[in-house]
Design brief:
This protein is mainly beta. The chain has one domain: Porin, CATH 2.40.160.170. Helix content is 9%, strand content 62%. It has one helix and nine strands. Strands 1-2-3-4-5-6-7-9 form an eight-stranded antiparallel β-barrel. The longest helix is centred in the first third of the chain and has 16 residues. The protein is elongated.
Length: 169
């Protein structure tokens, strides 16, 4: 019975993989957030992305520099334009939600959240290695216990800059 179950699972995975690559695992760097990202194709044009990572913010007040570190996560829904490319390859546009929860050594907390739009391009090479660039902007919700001086204080929006390297399977 166990052999049949394992054989059936292998056949299903081989058959499912014959239709194309539906998953990408990436090392990703977004503005102030570095982490591991997973992208899953929903169909030929739509995908969803989730990322968990480490966030780091710098603060400078009265010539005193502090760093705030913590946890961040990121969610995005994407639409890929080109029907001629592989799944999850080419120009894309999407909506994102980004959250960073950080804390200094003095236990001062900073929480940033953002909802916005992003666009970019993702390449998938024959070796299944992927490379992507993303650019966008979103709202900025800032809740901090730190004295002002964060590099983002003067911004009325949250810039969205991203770079990733991954593997498609």
């Amino acid at each position: 019975m166990l052999k049949r179950t394992i054989f059936s699972a292998i056949c299903i995975l081989m058959f499912a993989n014959s239709y194309g690559q539906d998953n990408i695992v990436k090392a990703s760097a977004l503005l102030a957030n570095v982490g591991l990202q997973y992208e899953r194709a929903l169909n030929d044009h739509f995908s969803v992305i989730g990322q968990v990572g480490v966030s780091r913010l710098s603060n400078s007040t009265n010539d005193i520099n502090t760093t705030s570190e913590g946890f961040g996560y990121y969610l995005e829904g994407r639409y890929y334009f080109s029907p001629k490319n592989k799944k999850m390859e080419g120009w894309h546009v999407g909506a994102f939600y980004n959250v960073m929860n950080t804390e200094t050594d003095d236990n001062l907390k900073t929480n940033i959240s953002s909802i916005g739009l992003a666009t970019g391009y993702q390449w998938i090479y024959n070796s299944n290695i992927t490379f992507g660039l993303t650019l966008g902007a979103g709202s900025k919700e800032l809740d901090t216990e730190q004295d002002r001086g964060l590099f983002i204080d003067g911004l009325t929006f949250w810039p969205h800059l991203g770079l990733n390297l991954g593997y498609s399977f």
